[in-house]
Write a structure and sequence with these properties.
Layout: E1 11-20, E2 23-30, E3 35-41, E4 45-46, H1 54-61, E5 69-77, E6 82-83, H2 86-107, E7 126-127, H3 136-144, E8 149-150, E9 164-168, H4 172-175, E10 196-199, E11 202-209, E12 214-219
Parallel strand pairs: 1-5, 7-8
Antiparallel strand pairs: 1-2, 2-3, 4-6, 9-12, 10-11, 11-12
């Protein structure tokens, strides 16, 4: 997860480097079956040492750089130990991958499907502000699926200083070791409620619903009943 390229998706490519009567050809085939071929016209010369330079050729063909491709297999089919300058190998690799990218873009087809509205019943008939229904289209959608009562979204009925901002499974009491449900044996003295979160001049009150194991965050002037821990006796 710490690597910058951990989420980068590469396209697998196979390369085949062959000789032609006029020089050489490099063919690239990607994982989706797209292909491209680049031709290098050159006078063939044998290596001076008489040894094969195939490994060096493969090494340079494998360098896909910042392209979206990953070279995972390379075949070099030569009848002789031909000499090729590295600059020419890099050039033909660059050309074939550029052509392959152009082919992928040209042959890309986006599937589109028409959504057919349904009237399947929604699991509940009454929605509170947490469903965030703030426009006519959303309201129409829920009505079509059988919802009868829809409360306006939070921002459309906001009562400054008195509104519930969030409901979360994260619990400050539990983090403090003061959970009456799971830490009763070790919690020690109870905390004085309501607990308050502060950041600069901003304050929020916390309300704990222990039965569903939830914590509510309210604005500082909100009023609510504090649940008694005795329900777990």
């Amino acid at each position: 997860m710490e690597r910058e390229d951990s989420a980068v998706r590469k396209i697998d490519v196979v390369l085949r480097f062959t000789e032609t009567p006029e020089g050489f050809a490099l063919t690239a085939t990607d994982e989706d079956g797209h292909t491209s071929t680049a031709v290098l016209e050159a006078v063939k010369e044998l290596t001076k040492t008489g040894e094969s330079g195939v490994e060096n050729i493969k090494k340079n063909l494998a360098k896909a750089g910042n392209t979206p491709f990953l070279i995972n297999d390379i075949a070099v089919d030569f009848s002789q130990h031909w000499f090729l300058p590295i600059s020419k190998v890099n050039e033909i690799r660059r050309i074939v991958l550029e052509q392959l990218m152009e082919t992928r873009v040209k042959e890309y087809h986006r599937e589109e499907y028409q959504i057919t509205p349904t009237e399947h019943p929604y699991p509940v008939e009454n929605l509170d502000f947490t469903y965030n229904v703030s426009n006519k289209l959303a309201r129409k959608f829920y009505h079509r699926h059988g919802v009868k009562e829809i409360e306006k979204a939070f921002e459309l009925q906001w009562d400054p200083g008195k509104s519930r901002v969030m409901t979360t499974k994260y619990c400050v009491k539990y983090e403090l070791g003061k959970c009456a449900r799971f830490q009763r044996a070790t919690m020690g003295e109870k905390v004085t409620e309501p607990l308050v979160l502060k950041q600069g001049d901003i304050e929020y009150k916390l309300k704990f619903n222990c039965k569903p194991c939830e914590m509510e965050i309210w604005e500082k002037d909100a009023e609510f009943e504090i649940e008694e821990d005795g329900i777990w006796d």
